[in-house]
Request: fold
Amino acid sequence: MAEDLKGCQVVCKVTTSQLQTLCRHEGIVCLDLGVNRKQMHNFEVEYLCDYKRTLVPGRKTANATGVPKEREFYLVKWKGYPDHMNTWEPRKNLRCVELLRQFWDDVFLELQRQKKTVVPNQFETELSSYLEQRARHRQSLQRWEAQINCVGGLTKRILVRNCVDLEGPPNNFTYINNYKVGEGVSMTTMAVGCECTNCLENPVGGCCPGVSGHGFAYNECGQVKVKPGEPIYECNNMCRCGPDCPNRVVQRGIQHTLCIFKTDNGRGWGVRTSERIRRHSFVMEYVGEIITTEEAERRGQVYDRQGATYLFDLDYVEDEYTIDAAHYGNVSHFVNHSCNPNLQVYNVFIDNLDERLPRLAFFSNRGISAGEELTFDYNMQIDPIDVESTKMDSNFSMTRSPKKASLITGSPKKLHMTGSPKKDPLMIGSPKKDPLMIGSPKKDPLMIGSPKKDPLMIGSPKKDPLMIGSPQKDPLMIGSPKKRARMECKCGTDNCRGYLF
Ligand SMILES: C[S@@+](CC[C@H](N)C(=O)[O-])C[C@H]1O[C@@H](n2cnc3c(N)ncnc32)[C@H](O)[C@@H]1O
Ligand SMILES: [Zn+2]
Ligand SMILES: [Zn+2]
Ligand SMILES: [Zn+2]
Ligand SMILES: [Zn+2]
Reply:
């Protein structure tokens, strides 16, 4: 019986304020509710929610200039005390500099939005209730940020900011830093270690990558030097080398402070870097739930209808598994698409050498300035170990030119949309913007590479969502192909293809 209740949740009908009062009344410390021993008897400002300026009674002028003497008051929400105990406090009583700064940032932003230039002596209800919502919203994001940074395995801090609207943390999303193995996926770690004393300078038998006939992936600064599409074999726990080995990069985790932020042009949340990132540096891993491709097809139908996808195919050798970061994921869950991206994905093998289960790591494809948004191409096309790939190697420099990236043939390393237009032979797009139309026929992906891996050929028709079920019932089938909505790309780059999928 108890097992049946696993994961069940019951809504608490008592408000936070009531619980805080109860704690205070009983003298109980509860840090989750903000009731600590210090402010059991002292008062601590939680946030400021209103403001007014009044003339000092009895004194019309204060000095020779004739400017009336005014006093400023702030309405204070006290930490651990319910709202009805908020009090107006004169400015001189407040020492919460950061909260005052945030309060005025919010005021000016909102007045600007309302196209007002003067700060009124007394705020209208609309403004004061907005300020309160904003303060609460900031708190909920701070709590989320704290939760994210509590999850084990993070090496650098992840920040959360939303200066655009009042959207809070996503529902139904659990932050994780390590893969979650889904149902029907068996992951047995199997690794072979190296015997080198210095893996970079004196690699024995080519070190770990050499065992499978590949080159050492990093230079002495930890920058990736192999071409996109080539696998990275890092040292593992069977190796003789220590944790500082130059062949351990992805396994060390994120090395830059990153920020999940709300975009201001309708792309939802995004990720930007708070620090400069050097080119070819490891940035983050695409972490999520590893599921079978069949399960991914099923979930993809649902995600397509919701208008967002978080499925990333692990198609390094075959299309057997997919990473789903929709409900369990790390910061990569929030990385948006760009037609001119600054991240490039690589297949990485560390403690598991099963080629069907590579780890996906994003590296910068150029230097990235502090504050820049991080993006990858949801439709990148790189062929990893296809027989054709050696032939393709000479052309791989093309991947650096995003326009030409779509010309590279083979298995597309892409975020997976079940209704992906590429898979749909009926889909008609704007010819100018359609990657299938770009370039000379010679370079057309339809013409180059092994047909087995041609994007239009991937997956058996049985699996194609366009074929599943009766046509009348499938919403994807309704209407002419032209009418079917493509997701508009808002990446804003000069070479934008115009759509995501
Ligand atoms: C992997 S998620 C990225 C994170 C997402 N923005 C969020 O808030 O969770 C992919 C979704 O983000 C949005 N998105 C990403 N890149 C976009 C772009 N260039 N233009 C428009 N929407 C984009 C689309 O809704 C897409 O389905
Ligand atoms: Zn080695
Ligand atoms: Zn090794
Ligand atoms: Zn090593
Ligand atoms: Zn675009």
In short: Residues 194, 196, 199, 235, 239, 241, 245, 247 surround zinc ion (ligand 4) (CB under 6 Å). The chain is about 15% helix and 15% strand. The longest helix spans residues 125-150.
